[in-house]
Design a protein that fits this description.
globular, Metallo-beta-lactamase, Chain A, alpha/beta, 290 residues
Length: 290
């Protein structure tokens, strides 16, 4: 079978309320916590590279506060030996600004997005005067309108493939539609490796705690009951102990997996295929034993 290595990189860090991530009111009034902004690189033993999400192009947040330790995702992958031009495919888990910006700086990548995510957000855009909306408008609190302008250009270039539900986009890599959860057509990625199947969750879950407690986060633009359904689907893949889960915004990620830092970028080596060199300077067997 085709095997995959999986690395997650922190391209920026925000400070978010604890209950924003882990759920209200059970986690309310507990202050703020570091929340990593993540992109995840998949590398196959056949040489294919897939980037899950692309981050944002500038480090401003929905609240106006800046993010710390920001590195644009195309420049980030270069620090780890991957030219932006070498990325074969991009999965956009959803269209929020911290996941779906900057994809235009990966000029050769095919972009995979759920059709329902695109169509539903286009309907929202068509119902508003987008020249006047701000982050104070709930509908646009996590959306950059300019990302849709860039997406339309990519569609015209034939770079975008719209998915209609669950779909395998490479050998062992399947996008799973999480309809009407975090957003209209959010998706998570199911990666089959020789060490088991892994979940790259995007914002279908923010933290390990969401799945441990079966409690949706405090911010979403979808239906929490549908989120609980997807939590169970992700648990079936990641294992009851969540040992094969990459949540969307949990700093705990870097404690649960072998982790390091290069040129100011913190990363987790989630899974290492036997023929790949570790970014941590270890063999694959040493990394898996840790």
């Amino acid at each position: 079978m085709t095997d995959w290595s999986i690395w997650s990189f922190c391209y920026a860090v925000g400070k978010l309320p604890y209950d924003f991530l882990n759920g209200a009111p059970v986690h309310s009034n507990r202050g703020k916590v570091d929340a990593p902004m993540l992109v995840t690189l998949l590398r196959s033993t056949d040489g294919e590279t897939i980037l899950v999400d692309t981050g944002f192009e500038a480090a401003g947040s929905m609240t106006g506060a800046g993010f710390a330790d920001f590195v644009r995702s195309d420049l980030l992958v270069q620090r780890f030996g991957y030219a932006p031009e070498s990325i074969d495919k991009i999965v956009l888990t959803h269209m929020h600004f911290d996941h779906a910006g900057n994809f235009h700086n990966f000029p050769n990548a095919k972009i995979y997005l759920q059709r329902y995510e695109y169509d539903a957000w286009r309907q929202v855009l068509d119902q508003h005067d987008t020249s006047k909306v701000t982050k104070a408008d709930w509908a646009f609190s996590s959306l950059n309108v300019n990302d849709f302008d860039l997406l339309e250009h990519a569609i015209q270039e034939g770079r975008v493939e719209f998915l209609e539900g669950d779909a395998e986009i490479a050998s062992g890599v399947t996008c799973r539609l999480a309809r009407d959860t975090h957003t209209f057509g959010s998706q998570w990625v199911d990666v089959a490796t020789e060490r088991g199947r892994y979940v790259v969750a995007g914002d279908c879950c923010y933290t390990f705690e969401n799945l441990n407690r079966m409690w949706p986060p405090g911010y979403s633009q979808g239906n929490p009951w549908n989120m609980l359904r997807e939590f169970n689907r992700m648990k079936d893949v990641a294992g009851a102990d969540l040992a094969r889960l990459i949540p969307g915004h949990d700093i705990e990620l870097f404690n649960r997996y072998p982790s390091g830092e290069r040129e100011g970028v913190r990363f987790a080596e989630v899974c290492l295929a036997g023929r790949h060199a570790s970014l941590l300077g270890r063999t694959s067997l040493e990394t898996q034993a840790r």
